[in-house]
Amino acid sequence: MDVHGLTPARQLDVGDIPVGPDLFLLVKNALQRMKQGQLLEVIGSGSHIKHDLQSWCRLNRHTFVMALDGGDHYRFLIRNNPVKELEQPDWGIKLPLRKDGRLDIRDWFEGRVGELREQAPAYVGFVPRGAVAEPGVPDFGFGLNRKDDVWSGNLLDLYEQAKEKQWNASTDIAWNELPALPEEMEWAVCQIMTFLAENEYSALYIPAKFMAQISPHYIEALMYLSTLIQDESRHIEAFTKRALAGGGGLQYSSALTERSLHSLFIQEDYFKSSFLLHVLGEGTFLDLLTFIEEHAPDPVTRQIVALAKIDEGRHVAYGIGHVRHIIECHSGMVQALVDAANERNEYLDAAGAGENSHLMEALAILAGGGRKPEQLKRGFALVRKLKVVMHEHRMQRLLQIGLERDTAETISRTHTPNFM
Ligand SMILES: [Fe+2]
Ligand SMILES: [Fe+2]
Question: What is the pLDDT of residue 3?
Fold first, then answer.
């Protein structure tokens, strides 16, 4: 064959690498990075690889063009005939640093990584957004595969904040400053901690059950939710430790609380779940934490609740941002929120309305300062006031996401007496 006019686009020196998987891997990769029809020149130290290269080319639908004897080496020309050539990956990306040398996640939207689509590509698998995927990635079946499904305008900032505000329930709490409290007050704290921990289990499990459905194309949403999961796990740890640290222990769980949390757990729609959990549930939980912080009988309880409240603020902010964005774009989705609240109420009403009575008593003792009738009277009055504040703040959040006042009023009025 005439070598005149044959110009290799690329050379691959394999030296005396023996015929085997390593050698074929190098040839395959080199060809994959070339355009269709281009020539690859493989330089080897012996002619013995010729037959194996020829067979490999036949199997992989490339054309073995010729072998040339170069004296102390051999040259083999292979024409690249891929079924489909791969896209070109990025090269030369250099992210600009912020003033103090930091590199935030919002800075990485450059080149192919920056191509965030409204609809995630199919067959994306775990291919990082921006990488070049070889054809043949199986369908992983991610159900949450539109940006609107999971995104929120404040997501990237919340992720940075979440990392900065992590705390350690083993070492950041002044456990050695926990005083001995009167028994009824210690009991009240233990009962409240039991209730808080129980609710935190749901706050951990519910987002976690959705995470594996989110397309990796929206990896930032998964990264943010991972911080949220870590927060909830830390809350469970801190609340449980507080119940066990002062001579008491975990107290009563009510079936009503469990039923309320179950009604959240069985919601299979992420948008509805986000609304019920982050906007209504955790929103109301914020007011409960504020109340406990205000009336905490010891610095340890106060510190734990204050730290948890900062974390919960981020969870509520994500929910509000996410739900508000969807309602702004699709006003018809308001009905889904009304339905979500109604479905939940029907489920809860079926078991009869009511409150967690142990929790109510504990909150009254905490706020009233003890178990004497006068204290309880004052305590119950403060708890009633708390419920009014909870309603007012729920209204503010519901108006903030874009609901009409009437709709907001109906949803807030029928919110579960379990708070979460
Ligand atoms: Fe929490
Ligand atoms: Fe939370």
Answer: 59
